[in-house]
């Protein structure tokens, strides 16, 4: 029997996996580095201002925190003056501040799992966290030079941060969050995406790949089928959060071998207050049967091993185990 | 190309700096303000259809909306003296507990472009705020509620139920958002459902 790590590599390299990779099982996730700690995630009901100056609120009864973008709370009110208001978080931290996460990393069984780190928000998200979505999307048209500058600034900061991660933790997998679309389409046209977003990620993911990171897992729980060629160009190995609307079987047929797809079990469908084991069984079976054994990891579309409603993530895992017995 | 066609093309292409000048030139040439406004509404309708079909994306829609707004600013003084051409008021907001704004903003943009006076309550709007605003605007024609999360669908249900049981009348309730289906809209007593911003504008016009 292959280890979870081996089984993942067989799956994404078109080899001979002996079962489905069960959601996030192959990733030994570590978290809590001192730079990320400067932007703590608010707890339910809380509001915080993170180290970029962005106000983040976590309302009751929502799956996660969200930036606040009324006029008073926007960090960037005028993109042409972004340099006056955007201050990147300090990357200073004493060496011993890295000890806790280093200990977590040392505890990961590398035979069984990849040492993995999740990083959020991504580059596009960081831009709209600073000024709101409407201003962001309009500014691609109206102030493209300033937007290029800001994206370069964020990307360069992320690379400096990545140097610290590589130095102290040596992650094997980077799971990077950046939502690029709604449920029905990408936010940006492929042409605009290619101009503004692709170069930044090529630089960032290129850095990781050149510094010991074996796999890039990119989370975007949205429509993005039209962006897959760019994902490949960026160096993404696994697109996580790939929603059913993308027609994953078709994408696997077209791009399998160049990129793999993790998802096809929409949280909007299964992670609901009145979920049932029957509903989850139906969705998992549909995904596993239609997507097949290679270049596909059955998974809910949430960006980590969790669910909004208790029991959903575990129920999905149990159904994937059931499908393993049937299909392998 | 006629001036009207130039304006339509300018709006559709999001020429925010060009459209106001074109509108002024059209007025100077003696064209009726209402005819110019109708042309821009028509152009935005085409933009909405292209968005619905996936031909254009959110930035193109936003920039077209902004171009139209710039044109309307030139028309406003003339329209004010000629009497209102509004289809009526539309109150819009994302329901309580939900901070998502882009979908709601697009709907507000398209409904505004279709000829409604939009009262945008923003995000995380309690049901009491919707009702209070309806009371303050007894001539409102459409109340539009958005929810982007499965976890805030109950808040949408409570909002629609509260509006419907408030005794206030004379308007229709339109709902939408990623997890919302026509069946859900119907089950909570909404008068109409729209899948996206372009569809919301079409539906709002049908409702009045």
From TrEMBL, chain A:
PANTHER family: METHYLCOBAMIDE:COM METHYLTRANSFERASE MTBA. Residues 52-316 form the Uroporphyrinogen decarboxylase (URO-D) domain. Keywords: Methyltransferase, Transferase. SUPFAM superfamilies: UROD/MetE-like. It comes from the Bacteria. This is Methylcobalamin:coenzyme M methyltransferase. It comes from Oxobacter pfennigii. One of its GO terms (biological process) is porphyrin-containing compound biosynthetic process. One of its GO terms (molecular function) is uroporphyrinogen decarboxylase activity. CDD domains: CmuC_like.
UniProtKB/TrEMBL annotation, chain B:
The gene is metH_13. GO terms for molecular function: cobalamin binding; metal ion binding; methionine synthase activity. It comes from Oxobacter pfennigii. GO terms for cellular component: cytosol. The keyword Transferase applies. PANTHER family: METHIONINE SYNTHASE. InterPro entries: Cbl-bd_cap, Cobalamin-bd, Cobalamin-bd_sf, Met_Synthase/Corrinoid, Meth_synthase_dom. Keywords: Cobalt, Metal-binding, Methyltransferase, Transferase. Residues 87-208 form the B12-binding domain. Residues 1-87 form the B12-binding N-terminal domain. This is Methionine synthase. Its EC number is 2.1.1.13. One of its GO terms (biological process) is tetrahydrofolate metabolic process. The lineage of its organism: Bacteria, Bacillati, Bacillota, Clostridia, Eubacteriales. PROSITE patterns: B12_BINDING (PS51332), B12_BINDING_NTER (PS51337). Belongs to the methylamine corrinoid protein family. The keyword Transferase applies.
């Amino acid at each position: 029997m292959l280890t979870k790590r081996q089984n993942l590599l067989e799956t994404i390299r078109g080899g001979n996996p002996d079962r489905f990779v069960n959601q996030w099982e192959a990733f030994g996730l570590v978290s809590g580095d001192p730079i990320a700690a400067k932007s703590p995630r608010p707890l339910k009901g809380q509001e915080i201002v993170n180290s970029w100056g962005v106000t983040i609120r976590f309302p009751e009864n929502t799956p996660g925190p969200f930036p606040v973008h009324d006029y008073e709370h926007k960090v960037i009110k005028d993109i042409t003056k972004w340099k006056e208001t955007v201050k990147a978080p300090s990357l200073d931290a004493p060496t011993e501040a890295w000890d806790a996460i280093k200990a977590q990393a040392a505890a990961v069984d590398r035979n069984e799992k990849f040492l993995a780190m999740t990083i959020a928000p991504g580059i596009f998200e960081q831009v709209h966290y600073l000024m709101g979505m409407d201003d962001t999307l309009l500014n691609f048209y109206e102030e493209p030079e300033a937007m290029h500058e800001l994206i370069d600034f964020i990307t360069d900061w992320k690379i400096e941060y990545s140097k610290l991660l590589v130095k102290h933790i040596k992650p094997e997998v980077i799971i990077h969050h950046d939502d690029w679309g709604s449920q029905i389409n990408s936010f940006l046209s492929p042409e605009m995406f290619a101009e503004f977003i692709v170069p930044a990620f090529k630089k960032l993911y290129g850095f990781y790949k050149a510094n010991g990171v074996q796999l890039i897992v990119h989370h975007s729980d949205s429509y993005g089928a039209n962006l897959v060629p760019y994902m490949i160009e960026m160096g993404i190995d696994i697109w996580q959060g790939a929603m059913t609307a993308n027609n994953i079987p078709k994408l696997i047929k077209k791009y399998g071998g160049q990129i793999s797809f993790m998802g096809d079990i929409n949280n909007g469908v299964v992670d609901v207050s009145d979920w049932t084991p029957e509903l989850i069984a139906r969705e998992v079976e549909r995904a596993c049967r239609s997507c097949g054994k290679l270049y596909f990891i059955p998974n809910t579309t949430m960006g980590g091993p969790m669910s909004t409603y208790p029991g959903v993530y575990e129920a999905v895992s149990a159904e994937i185990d059931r499908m393993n017995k049937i299909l392998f | 190309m006629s001036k009207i066609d130039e304006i339509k093309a300018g709006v559709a292409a999001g020429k925010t700096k060009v459209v106001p000048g074109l509108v002024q030139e059209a007025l100077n040439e003696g064209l009726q303000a209402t005819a110019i406004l109708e042309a821009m509404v028509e152009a935005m309708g085409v933009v909405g259809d292209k968005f619905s079909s996936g031909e254009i994306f959110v930035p193109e829609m936003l920039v077209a909306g902004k171009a139209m707004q710039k044109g309307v600013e030139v028309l406003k003084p003339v329209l004010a003296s000629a009497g209102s051409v509004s289809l009526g008021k539309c109150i819009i907001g994302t329901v309580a507990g939900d901070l998502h704004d882009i979908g709601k903003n697009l709907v507000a943009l398209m409904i505004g472009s279709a000829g409604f006076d939009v009262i945008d309550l923003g995000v995380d709007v309690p049901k009491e705020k919707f009702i209070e605003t309806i009371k303050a605007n007894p001539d409102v024609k459409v109340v539009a509620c958005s929810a982007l999360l499965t976890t805030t669908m109950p808040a949408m249900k409570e909002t629609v139920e509260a509006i419907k049981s408030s005794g206030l009348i004379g308007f229709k309730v339109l709902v939408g958002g990623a997890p919302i289906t026509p069946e859900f809209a119907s089950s909570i007593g909404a008068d109409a459902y729209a899948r996206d911003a372009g569809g919301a504008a079409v539906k709002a016009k049908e409702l009045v």
